[in-house]
Amino acid sequence: MRALWVVLLIFAGLPLSAQTVTMAHYSEPTDRYDHGILGDALEWGALVLTLRNGSIITFRLPESRVFEDLEPRLADVDGDGSPEVIVIETDISRGASLAIYDAKGKRTATPYIGRSHRWLAPLGAADLDGDGAIELAYIDRPHLAKTLRVWRYQGGKLNPVAELAGLTNHQIGQNFILGGIRDCGQGPEIVTVNANWSRLMATTLTNATLTARDIGAYRTPSSIDAALSCAN
Q: How far apart, in Å, are the Cα atoms of 191 and each of 144, 152, 159?
């Protein structure tokens, strides 16, 4: 299997500040994976990064993988003041993983779920427990397992921290992913809905344990938007 191809950039002598990612988007739509969980038959074959100095880098996946995602997410996961890029990278036979890229390529990722047509829906990245390290949260199989999983970025890797069943943030065919991370003055909370889509839930991480609380009724996606803006 070929490694990812990196084009349009030579790093020799490039200062670190110039390697800062300022924008990211997917390209090269492909129908080589027949899942369609996001409402259409196309996924993405390449990730394109724009750097502060104007350089463009393209990371092209092998035929056995796709970016099964809507858009890349920029977040500073290592605390160096510059963002990394968080994506959903899916292996056609092993399902989805949450991966982190930077200007040099794929830095680390969670394990693939383990079988084809199994997906995850990201929620965000933040220091969820105040320990100084960044955690990444997603719902594992939001239509099946409905399990919130939290991973911590440390030592260049993602390490599992905690999980909690009975939560979700996506319905089959939706071309958007609900939920996220908010801070309404009492620390970060992960906002999702419960498994039967009746209640809004806010979940906190303390001592490697996730605790969810009911914060109101779920009626439409705007209910999530209101919760993320601390309206409830």
A: 19, 18, 22
| Exposure string over 138-147, b if 16+ CB within 10 A, otherwise e | bbbbbeebbb
Report the relative pairing of strands 134-140 and 120-126 from DSSP bridges. antiparallel
Paired tokens of 57? 């880098």
Give the distance between the most distant pair of CA atoms in the chain. 55
Residue 231 has a pLDDT of 84
Instruction: Report pLDDT for 18.
Output: 67
pLDDT score recorded for residue 148? 98
The Cα 60–Cα 7 span in angstroms is: 9
Of 116, 118, 82, the C-alpha closest to 101 is 82
pLDDT for res 2: 29
Q: Describe the chain by its helix, strand, coil percentages, rounded to 5.
A: 5, 50, 45
Radius of gyration of the chain (CA): 18
Q: For residue 3, what pLDDT is reported?
A: 31
Regions in the chain scoring below 50 on pLDDT: 1-13
Instruction: Determine the pLDDT at residue 150.
Output: 98
114, 120, 117, 88: which is closest to 101 by C-alpha?
Answer: 88
Write the DSSP assignment of 160-188 as a string of letters.
EEEEEESEE---TT-SS---EEEESSSSE
Cβ pair 146, 170 in contact under 8 A: no
